[in-house]
Design brief:
Among the domains are: about 100 residues, Tetratricopeptide repeat domain (Serine Threonine Protein Phosphatase 5, Tetratricopeptide repeat, Alpha Horseshoe); about 35 residues, no CATH class. A two-stranded antiparallel ribbon has the order 1-2. It has about 750 residues and is an all-alpha fold. A hairpin with a 2-residue loop joins strand 1 and strand 2. It has 41 helices and two strands.
């Protein structure tokens, strides 16, 4: 035989086993084979690891072989079960080889055990080859392969094998049903899952609690929450697995309120939630930004002693971050007895998402001092932080780390890099990353289109879209929403309407986010009537929907209409945010509604508990300045509780230009020169104030000051569309034609 063991290396216990076999077959006492095997079993049950047990029992078998004693099916089955229980696949394979070499032909029971071992531990090709050679098969043989395929991510094969099993007339059990449902869930194939459900009903398994849990899991993962709820409601028995499946399923499908309601119902039963249940509930709190409910769950976790679970600690950290309570998230993190890469990633992502970009970068430095290894999730969060800070230098360092870790070719990191460079004002670098991608895909194309659209480079965004079409890539709602943003940037109403019509024609189901993009496009392209029509026809509206139409009316100088929409929004009970108030203040500013502006400004903090931000103060300064109340605007800017920024002083300077207030304009300009000495617009604005009152010497001084400080005025750029062609103009500069579009020069 090829399999040999050295007696000198055997343990005392192994020698005892040999002694037992010698007694059984060559000794003076009449010990039967069965008695000998019982003694082997007793030896195997001595305290030691299961893996060690399986190796020892295999040694026993090999000693029998050396004594020319042929094991029977019972012996092989006993040893094989030891290998299966101990996850000792290598020993199991050697045992299988022993059968083949010794010419032993396994019966259906033993062959099935081999199929179970191979399929359970992922050796699916071996399992299938053995299965195909079996002359006789039973339901366990079939079920083992179905379970194996499903457990190892081969849902399609599991489904195919399940259907073959049905055609062969084999009886399906709870394991085959639950496994094939798991395969359907992994593939997201709802119709096939429903067919399996029908088979279960016909075979009388629909009340089985194990299968019921698998059914609920399949339906929620395929997005059919209603079907999952029907299964749940019809179950006569409910255990913690079933409750957790329905609760987590609602959370995963953004049904946060229903998830919390189900959790309340569970608490009224005898079934106690486990850490998986709490994980689903915390996920719902995250999606709802329900901080108070999240804190209650945190309290329960502390009382129940479950918080030592690292997974729950990670979910809790994520919940606090998404509820904008990063301080609480940090406290949970610091108190976790054990931390993983996921723990660090959760907090870094939280800092980046909630605008604490510097903290995210500092926290990454701390992570590097531990043994934790950064992964793509870490780098994506760091790139987001650098994008939020417009920190190109920091972004380049992260980019270098991405390359060092071999992650630069992954789709998500490519898109994060494009986004980072674009938001840092380096669109050339963003485009370089995009062009270097080996195979374009919809996600990277959408990211590049969005980058151009957010920079008001609509023509370039459309060029990328045409490039995607030529490459045969599909487009989704996100693609078209980004194109609408590009159309809004260049005020191309006709193209925006074409995109809208195309979406309707191909039958894509519009969501709230896309309809918000439509409102924004129509409003910015000069058709407030179309924007209002889209708004009125929306089946449901978000706070962004209301805010978008208010901004639209404000940009068109229709302050009264904007206020009407704002008041209507209040009547619906929709919760407003700081952007909504910024929109209505903007509308009041552009319509000269000073009293109304003051009213809404004060109601922010008094009635809605929203603290004014720098943008709100800036809007009030602009409102007072446009109304000619320059002294009042100056008094306001000097009394606000935060340090006035360049945008606030810039709004006041613009008002000084409009109302020819040279004295105050000079004072404000000096402040701006201190805050932002390289911004050409500030110098030009002061120059225009002097020019308006014919103080040409002062105009000359301002221009000389710009030269001395190396300040260069960005050249003006505009465009018109004639005969469906974009004609671009730029002062004293030639624009290179792109995509066959005409361009003109104005000197």
């Amino acid at each position: 035989m090829a399999l040999r063991f050295s007696l000198s290396t055997w343990s005392r216990r192994e020698k005892n086993v040999l002694f037992i076999f010698r007694l059984a077959y060559f000794g003076t006492s009449a010990i039967s084979l069965k008695t000998g095997l019982k003694l082997i079993s007793k030896q195997a049950n001595q305290p030691q690891s299961k893996e060690r047990q399986s190796k020892d029992v295999l040694c026993d078998l090999l000693m029998m072989d050396r004594q020319h004693i042929l094991p029977d099916a019972y012996t092989y089955a006993s040893v094989l079960q030891q290998c299966i229980d101990a996850k000792a696949v290598a020993e199991g394979k050697r045992l299988h080889a022993h059968m083949v070499q010794s010419g032993f032909d396994p019966d259906v029971y033993l062959a099935t055990k081999l199929v179970v071992m191979y399929s359970r531990y992922g050796f699916l090709l071996d399992a299938r080859q053995l299965f195909d050679k079996m002359l006789e098969r039973n339901s366990v043989s079939w079920s083992s392969l179905v379970v194996g395929y499903a457990q190892h991510g081969q849902g399609e094969e599991a489904l195919v094998f399940f259907n073959e099993m049905r055609r062969e007339g084999m009886r399906q059990d709870e394991y085959s049903f639950s496994s094939v449902l798991k395969g359907c869930a992994g593939l997201g194939i709802l119709e096939q899952g429903k067919q399996v459900h029908q088979c279960m009903i016909k075979s009388g398994h629909e009340s089985n609690i194990v299968i019921g849990s698998a059914l609920v899991d399949m339906y929620v993962k395929c997005g059919s929450v209603e079907d999952a709820r029907n299964v749940f409601d019809n179950m006569s028995q409910r255990d913690v697995v079933l409750w957790t499946s329905i609760i987590a399923g609602h959370a995963q499908n953004k049904r946060g309120n229903d998830c919390l309601e189900l959790f309340k119902q569970m608490l009224c039963t005898d079934v106690k939630p486990n850490h998986f249940t709490f994980g689903g509930v915390l996920m719902a709190c995250s999606s709802l930004e329900a901080l108070e409910q999240g804190k209650q769950i945190h309290g329960w976790l502390v009382k129940s002693g479950l918080l030592v679970n690292v997974v729950l600690g990670n979910v809790l950290t994520d919940m606090y971050c998404k509820c904008d309570s990063v301080k609480d998230a940090r406290q949970v993190f610091d108190e976790m007895p054990q931390k993983t890469e996921v723990s660090w990633n959760a907090l870094i992502a939280g800092y980046a998402q909630q605008g604490h970009e510097n903290e995210a970068l500092r926290f990454f430095d701390q992570m590097q001092q531990t043994n934790m290894k950064a992964d793509k999730i870490t780098f994506i969060s760091l790139l987001k932080a650098c994008a939020g800070l417009a920190n190109k230098k920091g972004g380049e360092k992260v980019h270098a780390s991405v390359i060092k870790n071999g992650l630069e070719s992954q789709e998500v990191t490519e898109c994060a890099l494009i986004d980072m460079y674009a938001k840092c004002g380096s669109l050339d670098d963003a485009r370089f990353i995009f062009d270097e991608i080996s195979s374009y895909n919809m996600v990277s194309g959408n990211t590049m289109i969005t980058a151009y659209a957010q920079s008001d480079l609509g023509e370039e965004a459309l060029e990328v879209f045409h490039q995607m079409q030529q490459a045969g890539m599909k487009s989704d709602l996100y693609t078209f929403a980004s194109l609408l943003q590009a159309c809004a940037g260049i005020a191309d109403l006709d193209l925006g309407k074409q995109i809208h019509s195309h979406i309707v024609k191909i039958g894509l189901e519009l969501d709230v986010a896309f309809e918000n993009s439509l409102i924004n496009m129509y409003a910015k392209s000069g058709s407030i009537e179309d924007a209002r029509q889209v708004f009125e026809e929306m089946p449901e509206r978000s706070v962004v929907s209301w805010t978008s139409i208010i901004i639209g009316y404000g940009k068109h100088g229709l302050g009264r209409e904007a206020i009407q929409i704002f008041e209507r929004m209040q009547q619906t009970g929709m919760k407003m945010d700081h952007v909504t108030f910024l929109a209505v203040l903007f509308a009041c500013s552009h319509a000269g509604l000073v009293d109304e502006g003051w009213q809404y400004f004060h109601s922010m903090s008094r009635e809605h508990c929203i603290a004014p931000r720098a943008e709100h103060y800036g809007c009030m300064i602009d409102l007072l300045g446009r109304a000619g109340l320059l002294d009042e605007a100056y008094d306001f800017i000097m009394k606000i509780p935060i340090e006035p920024n360049a945008e606030m002083w810039g709004a006041l300077l613009g008002a000084c230009i409009n109302h020819a207030n040279t004295k105050l304009g000079k004072l404000v300009a000096e402040r701006l020169f201190e805050l932002d000495p390289q911004k050409a617009a500030n110098y030009v604005a002061l120059s225009n104030i002097y020019a308006a009152v014919s103080e040409w010497e002062e105009v000359k001084k301002i221009r000389n000051l710009m030269k001395d400080r190396g300040v260069i005025k960005e050249q003006g750029r505009s465009w018109i569309i004639v005969d469906k062609k974009l004609h671009e103009f730029c002062v004293k500069r030639h624009i290179v034609p792109t995509n066959g579009r005409d361009s003109c020069t104005m000197s």
